[in-house]
Design brief:
The chain is of the alpha/beta class. It has 6 helices and 5 strands, in the order ααβββαβαβαα. Helix 4 links the parallel strand 4 and strand 5.
């Protein structure tokens, strides 16, 4: 693609790309640390961070974990609140995905941004049990996002079923023969215009 657009262009080397990524990473991390520091000063030691994490294993058996935090940030200059979400890390996780290893890695990532388990309100995870177990090790509460979503869906389905049953009962009370009433059928035959003209000619004795 690069050669087709400009035959004189050459892609940058791998080392140069790594340097650019490192510069962008350091700039982004400094900006994130600034937001977190201001939020810590505003909340004055209170728990204010919601943490979500997920871990998985690659095809070659290497483990990884992604960690994201969310919190409400008050911009003093504008006086407006905003929900801030930050992906702190997506890093290699050596060893087994047990509660102790997960808790140690989460604590390590939080410490890199000046945070600790003391600032985390709740740990959010998917249907796996690793993150909730790590939350217990770190002394925090956890919520299973998929389980909560499934429960809410089941409650909504139950409410919908109750509403439909109530409507059917009301219709039956107003019309006792509602269950035996036959639906009206449209017996009128519909023909397309060419067929109708041809049938009319045949009835008039024309071919």
């Amino acid at each position: 693609m690069l050669g087709l657009s400009n035959d004189r262009a050459t892609p940058p080397s791998v080392g140069f790309v790594k340097k650019i990524f490192r510069v962008i990473y350091d700039m982004t991390k400094a900006k994130m640390a600034k937001y977190i520091g201001e939020a810590k000063a505003y909340y004055k030691g209170l728990r204010f961070v919601g943490l979500s994490a997920d871990c998985w294993t690659s095809r070659v058996g290497q483990g990884f974990i992604g960690i994201e935090i969310s919190f409400i940030f008050l911009d003093v200059s504008t006086g407006k609140c905003a929900m801030i979400s930050m992906c702190l890390a997506c890093v290699y996780l050596p060893g087994s995905h047990n509660a102790v290893n997960l808790a140690a890695k989460i604590a390590e990532v939080l410490a890199a941004f000046g945070l600790s388990a003391l600032f985390v309100i709740i740990y959010v995870s998917d249907s796996g049990g690793g993150i909730p177990a790590a939350a217990k090790v770190m002394g925090g509460q956890s919520r299973n996002l998929f389980r909560e979503t499934g429960r809410q869906t089941k409650r909504n389905e139950t409410k919908m079923g109750e509403m439909l049953n109530s409507r059917n009962r009301n219709e039956t009370q107003n019309n006792p023969n509602a269950h035996f009433a036959k639906p009206k059928r449209n017996t009128k035959q519909v023909r397309c215009p060419p067929c109708a003209k041809r049938n009319k000619r045949n009835r008039n004795g024309r071919t």
